[in-house]
Amino acid sequence: MKNLLSLREIMKVLSNSSFRSNSPLVATTGFFDGVHGGHRFLLSELKRLAQERDLPSAVITFAVHPRIVLQADFHPELLNTYEEKIRLLGKTGIDYCIVLDFDRSLAETPACDFIRELLYKKLNVTTLLVGYDHRFGHLRLDGFDKYAEYGARCGMEVVKTASYTDNGVTISSSKIRTLLHAGNIAAANALLGYNYTLKGRVVEGNKIGRTIGFPTANIAVADKQKLVPAFGAYAVWVDIESVKYKGMLYIGTRPTVDNGSETNIEVNIFDFRKDIYNKRIAVEFVDYIREDKKFSSLDELKMQLKRDMENVFEKLQRNN
């Protein structure tokens, strides 16, 4: 795992093979997909404990989803790419992000050995903060009481966080995935604390959009493990070379033109006429506009797109 210091000047990002700490650490561990509101609550508690003990704080995480190592056909539907996760963690003010190389050996390590040999002896973790429902170690057999017992044996303090809710809703990565699959972008963004984003490259399309006055940029998503939201039309912000534009994005199979079963992701960028083929592009989802449907003609589709554009413009004006 390469050193990713360039991604964040303050938080030091290192692999466990290269990390050595002369100081004891206050740490927490997990995959942190989404770095959502619940994760940020946990990390704020981590920083508080570290400040109380006058010690550095550390997040211990993985570059690859653990289930991919254990289950070759598992498709994780990630909320963040690895680079996105590192950038989001870097914004929390944590001192270190230590990236473990998750392999079968680590997967088969019992929690007691993980705490004693890796966290305590190798990484010098003297205070471990555990999420209220987080489990780790081989087959995730143990719970917090056992973690506290294993920690006490080697002189490590193990602390459990309280559960965190947002307006009575418990935040989890799985709940956010469910919302995205339902097209409920506004609710998903509220739990994430930021707009859900897809990144990719602009590729050649069938150019039907331009024949009805709505040219689109077709997007090949960069990370195939990233979750693609439900079929339909969305209000989005489009980032091209660090400039943001308003846009109307479509996800679906283009049933009106009998395009087959392949999923297409394409965005009509408002007030934009540049050639951006092969350019990198990012779309931030703001709100859901309507479901995907088959229209009786291209003229009917064109009329619907005009209504969609008005709706998108209104939603983005409120989000500006």
Topology:
Blueprint: E1 12-15, E2 25-29, H1 37-53, E3 57-62, H2 66-70, H3 82-90, E4 96-100, H4 104-107, H5 111-122, E5 125-130, H6 144-154, E6 157-160, E7 165-166, E8 169-170, H7 173-181, H8 185-192, E9 197-203, H9 208-211, E10 217-221, E11 232-240, E12 243-252, E13 264-269, E14 280-290, H10 298-319
Parallel strand pairs: 1-4, 2-3, 2-5, 3-4, 5-6
Antiparallel strand pairs: 7-8, 9-10, 9-14, 10-13, 11-12, 11-14, 12-13
Helix pairs in contact: 5-6, 7-8
Outline of the structure:
This protein is an alpha/beta fold.
Folded structure, characterized:
With 320 residues, the chain is of the alpha/beta class. It has ten helices and 14 strands. Helix 6 links the parallel strand 5 and strand 6.
Give me the Rg, rounded. 23 Å
- The run of helices and strands is EEHEHHEHHEHEEEHHEHEEEEEH
Biggest beta sheet summary: 6 strands, parallel
- Unreliable stretches (pLDDT < 50, length at least 5) are 1-9
Shape: elongated
Could you list some keywords that capture this structure?
320 residues, alpha/beta, six-stranded parallel sheet, six-stranded antiparallel barrel, 10 helices, 14 strands, 32% helix, elongated
